[in-house]
Fold this protein.
Amino acid sequence: MIQQFFSGLYEMVLGRPIPANFTNDYREVVFPNTGLMLFIITLAIVILYYYVLNRVMSTGLYKTQHWVMFLILNAIIAFIIPVTQVSSNDIETHSYTYMFAFVNVVFSLILFFVFSILLKKGSVQAWTTPMKWPNKR
Amino acid sequence: MAKLFVFGIGGTGSRVIRSLVMLMAAGVKVQNCDKIVPIIIDPDTQNGDMNRTVELLKTYKHIHDALGRREEGFFHTDISTLSSIAGDGTAKIRDSFVYDFGGINKPFKDHVGYNQLDVESQALIDLLFTPENLNNSLDVGFRGSPNVGSVVLNEIIDSPEMRFFASNFQPGDRIFFVSSIFGGTGAAGFPLLLKNFKDSRTSLPNAASLNTALTGAMVVLPYFSLEQPAAGVEADFIDSNTFTTKAKDALSYYQHHLNGVNAVYYMGDKPDKPMENNPGRASQKNDAHLVELLSALAIVDFMDYSDDELSGNETFHEYGLREDVNNVQFSHLDSETKDRIATQLIRFHYFERYYTTHLPGDAQAAYAKGVDLQGALRNEPVFRELNKFLTNPEFGYQAWLRELSRKERTFAALDLNETDFNRMVSDKHVETGFLNKGISQGAFVKELNRASESVSDRDAFKATIKAFETATERLVEEKLKYS
């Protein structure tokens, strides 16, 4: 199910993986691994930002520019994951690989924002970062 | 709803009330009353000391009204005008902190109708008053002449203000007088008002309540001197060389004739460098003085006593520092005084320093963003009032603290020029290290964010003040560790 979800998600944007002889590798290994890693790492970074740095430690990294820095860090990681997944599974590198990495970056931005909106309420120092909405307290 | 009526008589009365307002702003608690009603009595309507105290009182009232009724915190004490205590808008007197003399702008001679008197009466007047007394215009005050003040002030008892005050005086309310003993207005006004309030045959309404009201008085003994003009120079001036003589005479009078006061407080000091000699009007704007700050504490002390404690024999209080030093810090104050004001003033000072210096750069901090503080700072008038209270060069907190540090005996407990929070309190610095920056701007904003978490108020002003109250309390307790 996870395989199908992530394969469907990436192929919806990228189309069928190429070269064609690696389609199954993408569908069975690369897409699910990349999707899962993206989900877990993004969640971890959002938790790190809101709960560790801005709740437990109160580091002062509460400004929007700090949030953007972590967003970019997550995006860089999101770019690296597909490239390393492809090469570690002995799949031939293709322009599709970089398109895949780029789409993963876009997904990382969306996911980071969504997690931020969902989780920021529990942060003491940064519950209004990047914006106050939807929290009202 | 017990009230405390504070009569601030003359320039010293105004200046002590100025210090009292600063203490109230810092959150110093006044027990046994819900409301303070200051009534400033000074015929000199242009008096600089009085006018800036009135502006300060108005600003305080705006801020207090915006924050609403609270049991503690900055600006929590309700300070109201006399007319507002009626509560139903029926007061027929001017809504002001100042007693309205109605513009007595004629010489004392005309005020008493000297020219219409027979020769014998004129001779008696000449015996009691100097030619200067007779010819000086009354709208500049009594210029250090209590003999003039005692005549003019005796008439205010029949004024609408005094009748309104008496009508609204309720059992349980208290009265406190603040006056100097060495000047004109205060020295004359205090015993006169007291005599009239305590006279069982007084024409004032509510006489029984007034007669039995618990009453305190702060009698300020000489604590400053004035520059004297050079010999032969014709100048309009108050002779400060007579302060001690006048104080002795008045004390002697008080000893035998002052009845009905439950607690009398005395405060004075050796005069330091002479101040500019301005007998009245706008130019009489003396720097704030430590004696005035400590005199304001007499009011707090008086209110600390329960009704039963005050109802016994008359008590007399004097004040002494732990050490005779020129730069007075909190550690030089008696522990009772220190406990009353030190942490409150430190917290307020931290608030003022952060608010005026760092807050404009905190647009993205949670405590500010959560209530759209930047928008509120631009649009809500109460923030302008707060700015006035803190920074106005005439009457603001900064000016007050700066003036207190300009004398020979200075109040040097808080350093206005120090930008490092760790070193602002003179007798207690925060220890810092490689990993511990003490009270840095970052630590302050963290505490503000943390404090704002527990603030449920949506109003930007209330939420901001509350956040500062909680944050400064934690910083003083946990970082400064002041005790």
User: Anything to note?
Assistant: DSSP finds 19 helices and nine strands in chain B. The longest strand of chain B covers residues 3-9. Residues 335-357 of chain B form the longest helix (23 residues). The mean pLDDT of chain B is 89.
